[in-house]
Design brief:
By secondary structure, the protein is of the alpha/beta class. It has a single domain, classed as 3-Layer(aba) Sandwich (Glutaredoxin), CATH 3.40.30. The chain is 35% helix and 13% strand. The longest helix is centred in the last third of the chain and has 19 residues. The radius of gyration is 15 Å and the shape is globular. The protein starts with 21 loop residues before the first strand and ends with a strand.
Length: 150
């Protein structure tokens, strides 16, 4: 899934979007994923992140750009400085950027990526059993609308 930094800017199928901050692409129909997006917005006191539901036209375009199945929105994507991270790498990076005890997530890098992503995939496959679907993506109303893309 490696692509050149900012490659989405020259992909005509990806609508232009503000990428001056990191963008987190998440499954907006999943209660666990939406909860993670809300947690990111709540704890991101330095406004480092924007969030984007994968179901949006931009989210789907980014999935296709990174050669992911836009019918299976289980992959968490972080786009930071034009580069994309996926699954556990993305989750660890976001946690580290949030600071506080979240930075301890960086310790997970000692676990081999294949094992981390296998655990990620297991949770992703079962996430809708754990917390079900939501009929609509629910984010924080008090958050600056500029931090929510899509």
């Amino acid at each position: 899934m490696a692509t050149a930094p900012y490659s989405y800017r020259v992909d005509p199928s990806v609508p232009p979007f503000p990428d001056d901050r990191a963008v987190v692409v998440f499954d907006g129909d999943c209660a666990m994923c939406s909860g993670s997006a809300r947690m990111i917005l709540r704890r991101d006191r330095r406004d480092r992140f924007r969030v984007l539901a994968a179901q949006s036209p931009l989210g789907r375009a980014l999935y296709r750009h990174y050669r992911l199945d836009d019918g299976d929105l289980s992959t968490f994507i972080l786009i930071e400085n034009g580069k994309a991270l996926f699954k556990s790498d993305a989750a660890i990076r976001v946690a580290e950027q949030l600071g506080g005890l979240n930075t301890l997530a960086g310790l997970l890098r000692i676990v081999p990526p294949g094992l981390r992503d296998a655990a990620y995939d297991w949770v992703a496959r079962n996430r809708l059993r754990f917390l079900r679907r939501r009929p609509v993506c629910i984010l924080l109303p008090e958050v600056d609308p500029g931090r929510i893309l899509g």
